[in-house]
Amino acid sequence: xxxxxxxxxxxxxxxxxxxxxxxxxxxxxxxxxxxxxxxxxxxxxxxxxxxxxxxxxxxxxxxxxxxxxxxxxxxxxxxxxxxxxxxxxxxxxxxxxxxxxxxxxxxxxxxxxxxxxxxxxxxxxxxxxxxxxxxxxxxxxxxxxxxxxxxxxxxxxxxxxxxxxxxxxxxxxxxxxxxxxxxxxxxxxxxxxxxxxxxxxxxxxxxxxxxxxxxxxxxxxxxxxxxxxxxxxxxxxxxxxxxxxxxxxxxxxxxxxxxxxxxxxxxxxxxxxxxxxxxxxxxxxxxxxxxxxxxxxxxxxxxxxxxxxxxxxxxxxxxxxxxxxxxxxxxxxxxxxxxxxxxxxxxxxxxxxxxxxxxxxxxxxxxx
Length: 368
Ligand code: SF4
Prior knowledge:
With 368 residues, this protein is an alpha+beta fold. The chain contains 16 helices and seven strands.
């Protein structure tokens, strides 16, 4: 059963002083040293880090963040770069939509805000790819705006602090946002937001929360009720559909045929060995057959790669094809889902954005 919102917000208000004090004191002593936590915070570094951290672990992000900031130290540097080059710098981090949105956002800041990252929530929200979460993170952490940041970590902490047990309560983003906003202090709201996220990452973790080390344990309903291990209730998820594909690794000397994905589809704008749905359409089967150095049927797959995405699982059979010396696949149409084809050496691939699936397929083909 869902409780009325009013009493929960009243509880949040009444406990807010104790929670703020304890959490901020803990954060001062326990905050991890991270490259984007400069003093004072740099809006560009906050923006880049928050985008990189979406669905990606801190330890994975840190080396990418260093390399990215070295290459694009400010918004102007990213805005003047070509998208292909930016996707190259993002290669391996996954969720390339984020890189495209960051690039578009940087160009918008240069065009509309004279290369200065805006400092109001409305202006931040007007940038491409910047939604509630990112605008609140940049606004509060870099500019001191009182906007609550509500990510998965914060939602888990809130669900436990107020023992939000029902499925409805657990899945209500609005409820979590209102509670988070109620807890947020007027002074140093960005530090409080960082502290909430840090608590969720280090102490109030998904598996077994470390309540004995938690600074806000005295204010926590889940701990008081012994429910810390069962809140939030696991969300029921349908099994991800499995999509069966074939990746054609066509090589000619030291080059491999790579396709550039359509901008708006899966792996948009990235390069990979052309991938086809199974069973492969006869037109594209003939196209691949014509590229072969030796005539005859297409060879059998040499390996299969299982690639798990957020909402589907790709089962990709890997075909290796030795191409004729004069094979020119760029003549005529490109396979569905692609906008261009090019022969690429390993060096070319390093300079372009290749998806993590592409790297796994090339590795399965013995090429990387
Ligand atoms: Fe999470 Fe336990 Fe702290 Fe409650 S006491 S916020 S459940 S770590």
